[in-house]
Amino acid sequence: VLHRDQLVTGLQQLQAGQVVGKLVVTFDAC
Number of C-alpha atoms within 13 angstroms, CB side, residue 2? Predict the structure, then answer.
């Protein structure tokens, strides 16, 4: 269960990082 929680947390962080990266790219474009 612990490993599964860590995996889910890692995926969430990965998705959040992609979203932040897109936002940064958008701001840089402006």
Answer: 0
